[in-house]
User: Fold these one by one.
Assistant:
Number 1:
Amino acid sequence: NPGSSATLAHALVAALATGPAEVVARVRATFDSGATKPLEWRLRQLAALRLMLTEQTEAFSQALQADLGKSPKEAYRGEIGFALNELDHTVENLAQWLAPRPATVPEFFRPAEAKVVREPLGVVLVIAPWNYPLQLALVPLIGALAAGNTAVLKPSELTPATSAAIARLLPRYLDREAVAVVEGGVPETTALLEQRFDHIFYTGNGVVGRIVMTAAARHLTPVTLELGGKSPAVVEPGVDLAATAQRIVRGKFGNAGQICVAPDYVLAIGGTAAELEPHLAAAVQGLYGDDPAAHPAYGRIVNERHHDRLTALLGDGRIVTGGGHDRASRYLAPTVLADVSPDAPVMQAEIFGPVLPIVPVPDLDAAIAFINDRDKPLALYAFTESEQTKQRLTAETSSGALAFGLPVSHLAMPDLPFGGVGQSGMGRYHGEYSIDTFSHTKAVLDKPIV
Ligand code: NAD
């Protein structure tokens, strides 16, 4: 009908005429109006996001398939369903998280009342990466909106189908005056970063993390940096190696290894290095069959540049299983490398792909020293039956998270904080930690004047 095409034309003209300054000014005006502060507004946005995820499951799933070869099952598990879990947990607990908390007033100051109040920060910028391009855009957004902020969302240009789907669908469901999606790569992000935000939430690599933090410093804007790094999986002698190998393989090769908390390498203590080899090979075969290229659950590398980077690492050790690759389809087989030297290129930077080196170390002391000699990882995993080993790893190493017996899954528990430390990032989110991140925690004191 003519009415809706006129509206469309108007929206198009408005979109073309809007630069980053206008976009930020628009959502800032909404924040300043106070519209986003009531609990009802926040819950309405979360309900709208929920509706979007359930009504548009197919559209997002197709986009994720096009960008990363993600199967519908994997797209649901790691992206759509993951965001819905976070959303439901937030809706269920939000009123309680936002309730003012009474604080004790020392005797000397009485009579008086003191409390702690969480208030929204203002305009939040979310910059998302490509490996979980929907989840890592929406989960921070859920926190930002639940905390009463307005937001600008910048999806990754490396996953263009998902980025386009977000840009097309989000404004159909959410308050358009409060949430804006800006698509683009380096120039667009650089232009956005010139604007003043009240918080910047960046997920990606440490090089860009530094660029983001430098830009934020100009406006004294606080940042959350969700970065990566090499997350080790320590394996101690005496554990069930078949079960251990299955857990490691599941954590490592999902999304073709492009998971920020995937085990980056195995730190095999004593004889486990050699003993693990057949178990890892069997676990890969058990999960993806004889031809992972034909298995629907096995993903693809995001682009040719990353494919080239990863295939260049295949000579850094003896191939136990895998090694096959095809540039045209961006396929790289789940690959395990043995006899890997700590000085090999594969052990220098985060692998972020389906290549798993096994690095032997003589004992637990050597494993702890190996970990502590390097950047603090985003996650540390260990397979051990020893309580003493668990205690030593907890006390003597530092990492974003520490998990015994199960890699990756801690990030799906919304009561656990998710974030890095040192070079793996700063700040944390998920569940109530997101509310902390996107709020100012204000002290309120009230003493009678007379
Ligand atoms: P990416 O290249 O998609 O970059 C992330 C974002 O930064 C994108 O939106 C991109 O447009 C923007 N960007 C890129 N270059 C820029 C520049 N010069 N200036 C301003 N903005 C720029 O993602 P990536 O960094 O390749 O992602 C992989 C890394 O992210 C890995 O290290 C991985 O471990 C990490 N990661 C961490 C988490 C986490 O939750 N901690 C999650 C996923 C990925």
Number 2:
Amino acid sequence: MSAGLNLAQLQAVHYIQGPCLVLAGAGSGKTRVITHKIAHLIEQGLAPKRIAAITFTNKAAAEMRERAQGLIGRSARDVLVCTFHALGVRMVREDGQVLGLKPQFSILDADDVASILKDAAGGTTDLATARQWQWTISKWKNMGLNAQQALAQAQDDHERSIAVVMARYEERLTAYQSVDFDDLIGMPLRLLRDHPQVREKWQQLLGHVLVDEYQDTNATQYELLKLLVGERGRFTAVGDDDQSIYGWRGATLDNLKKLPQDYPSLRVIKLEQNYRSTSAILRAANNVIGPNPKLFPKTLFSELGEGEPVRVVDADTEEHEAERAVARIQSLRAGSNPPPDWKSFAILYRANHQAKPFEKALRRANIPYKVSGGTSFFDRAEIRDLCAWFRLWINNDDDPAFLRAITNPKRGIGHTTLGALGEFASQHKQSMFGALFNAMLPAAVPRRALEGLHEFGRYINDLEYRARHTLGAEASRTFLADWLREIEYEKHLYEGEDNEKAAAARWSNVLEFCDWMAQRAGGQVQDATGADVVTESKSLLEVSQTIALLSTISEREQEQDMVTLSTLHASKGLEWPHVILVGVTEGMLPFKLDDDEGRQEKVSDDTAQRLQEERRLMYVGITRAQRTLAVSWTKKRKKGREMVAAQPSRFIAEMALDQKTAREDPREKLKALRAEFAAKAQAAAASGTPQA
Ligand code: ATP
Ligand code: MG
């Protein structure tokens, strides 16, 4: 397993006796250490299912599983490679009963949460406010606070009122047998902390836990990790303090600082060689991160040579910037033989909404691309409809799912009936589904509506039974096709959409989704190469349960030859030969740090902290590039609805310290070419030789 590892990496891989922290800059092979260490642990005799490797995204998990398999073959399949949240689902499913949760609980998405909050506040609030509360409540939950504790520490009346809503919100979640995303960390934490038998079980099971991107864990995740590994502390964490970019979501560098205190025997290993980028790119990265305070001193060097200078591109507007990015991609392809694949290019930006002009320009140029970290497949209405049905047959008490399923497709049950049912259910302290067969319900809703409700209830029970007994891909495919026919979902889509093409696109999403679900039920399936592989069959019920967690399509994306459009946050851990960082305009990156109205704001601690995080974000972006890097900025930027004059980001000047960055302007290039041509022509005329 020593192939392709340097000495320090080998040390990190071979040290399995106790806690180990690999602390190193971007592209130094931290993730590679994790993959190799999984293989090494198995070689040393640790059963694969006793190893857990925690990654930051589902996509990273899929990649790591694949790499580990490449190293040691099939046994890597049984390693638990997943995100903290997916691990949480597994723990809560196995042991949530002790917290009063059925194994078939529901996982709520952000929309459900907002609507429950709105409801918990008495229905008088708008959705936008509910979303703000959601943010605050999530923050508290990530700090490990429950509603009472949140109330106790609330700073003002506003926070106190949110804490009150939070208490009601939590009650509702219990009633609905549902959890939100934050609970997927908080509940496992409570399980391990408060229930010794559960804690022992997990500590016995896990022989080694590995964590990638450790710098972006939050306080509750760290607590969870500590309880999982117990006092023996058999874990390997890898991270880079300069790449901590999720502070706004509660990630904290304190976790890095605490490790040596909490584990005095911690072995800290530093990696110094960068295997990803050229020296020119690395220098730009170091210059940008330089001004940040250092948590640990680090040096990083590359032996890949100086490489191309970093290019700075200016553009008038975003549209212009997009054209230039496309032109750059085309000219880089034209300039080498064979031309680089489309997938070796990435365009990175700060915020999702910036993608649009680039999508348009790429489309116009017929360049295939994918948007990652953007609007997810699972956020589409049709997919959410289907998921609501799954959720309901998994957990009948999931009221938001009930409401969505019973009205999509419409089955002649109107809002008045549903309102009456809801009222009745809350009077009887039941879920809406639970209330369907309550003997007193007939007094509360009209007879005709009652029949419709009963029919729906029976149908869900029937589906649940069938899903439970549907095993493997083939059977699942048949089940899903039958079900869609029974509820006439295709017709529903065409009726709801004026535009036939849009309806057809939705229907094709539905089919794609169902096919993907069926694949996940396993049995005999085809892998990416078309070869038959046999995987463990799962029931469709089990498959549906994990669906709510998959927030991006990326996990199932096969390597396709496409240009990547991605936010900087979603680009973490990844690399591309050619990277274009766009929108590197003061006010966008760093994001408007000064006060919007131009009032002179004193540089508070908060502003300084934010600038540090912006700097790390830029550092992450730069260090994604392997061979060439361009950064572009626009002379005008949107501010609210207006366009205002803009300056290049301060980071551009900083990158260029002590190095040549080449300002790229095709017009200048053209001028130079013309001049050269004219000079040649002149010289030729003077010497009398004819022009070729
Ligand atoms: P990031 O901080 O961006 O997550 P990282 O530290 O996890 O980066 P990796 O992604 O593991 O770095 O490695 C960066 C690149 O260098 C990868 O292409 C990897 O295959 C390569 N690499 C790492 N170590 C070695 C090595 N010892 N020899 C050759 N290539 C290596
Ligand atoms: Mg990495």
